[in-house]
Every structure is written in C-alpha cells, then in structure tokens.
Amino acid sequence: MPELAENNLEENKKKCLAMVAAWNRWELKGIIDHWADDVVHYSEDEPVDTPEMIRRMEGGLQAFPDLHLDVRSIIAEGDRVTLRITVTATHKGQFGDLEPTGRKVSWHIVEELRFEDGKVVEHWDVMNYLPMLKALEMVPAEV
Fold first, then answer.
1. How far apart are the C-alpha atoms of 4 and 24, rounded to whole Å?
2. CA pair distance 70, 68, nearest whole angstrom
3. Which end of the chain is more exposed for a tag (fewer CB within 10 A), N or C?
4. What is the mean pLDDT of the segment spanning 40-59?
C-alpha cells in the first residue's frame, strides 16, 4: 500500500508540473483540464468561483503576455501538493488602471492543490505582488 501512495504523490506532482508547463505555453485549457468539475478555489483565503478564477488568469495573460513560472520547490504529502513559484513577465497590457509600461516584473506565489481521483478538488494561492508593484511604481520602492 505505501508504494501506491508514493505513486499517487508522484503522479500529483507531475500533474502540477504539467499545469505549470501549460501556464508557460499560455494555454489555460491545459490547467483547467486538471480541475474537477466542482473544484473550489481560494485566493488569499477568500473563495473564488471557477469563472472568476478563469477571468483572473485571462487578465494576467493579457497584462503580462510573456509570463513565465519558475517552480522553486514542490512538496507532496497525502492528497496535497504545494508549489513555491517565482513569476517573471513584461508589463505589456492593461493592469487595473495602469497602462502598459514595458517594464520587467516579478512576483511570488505559493500554490496548494488537493487531489481526489486524479483531479484538483481544492486550490489555494497566496500571492506576493510587492516586487511587481515596486517595479511598476505602484508602491514606494522602500516598502
């Protein structure tokens, strides 16, 4: 039985890395296909429905069309996988009220995904946008 559990851990990690690869191809369907129909998303601990999550993802790609995710670490335990990610991108599209600046930016993400029957059933993310906000001069550099 422990071997089966270990295989599930490795399979879940592979699925997470496949979703990251889909992000890096700017192919949202390659992410969404891994979600259960009733997946529950939490962003900064607030529930977000799937249509809103997709809108946020599309908005990110419009504002930062060359974004690239770099997985710094990945840990799997039980039915969960956690990733620590650094995102780099160029601000080429509208971001909130800010017109494109052409500036290179980065931010950091921690993602936790819970799997059931090979699909993501719960998803949490925590974003550290401070490096990006500084680069875009939306907050003072000394913050």
1. 30
2. 7
3. N
4. 95
Q: At 80, list the tokens.
A: 């969960």
> How far apart (Å, rounded) are the C-alpha atoms in residues 109 and 83?
8
Q: Is the dihedral of CA 87, 73, 20, 33 positive or negative?
A: negative
Q: In this structure, is the dihedral angle defined by the CA atoms of residues 84, 65, 11 and 124, taken in order, positive or negative?
A: positive
* Digit-coded pLDDT (tens) for 77-133: 999 999 999 999 999 999 989 999 999 999 999 999 999 999 999 999 999 999 999
Only one residue has tokens 């993400």, namely 109
Q: Which of 20, 40, 29 is nearest to 116 (CA)?
A: 40
Q: What are phi and psi of 59, to 5 degrees?
A: -65, -40
CA 63 from chain center: how many Å? 15
* Nearest to 89, CA basis, from 76, 74, 75, 100: 100
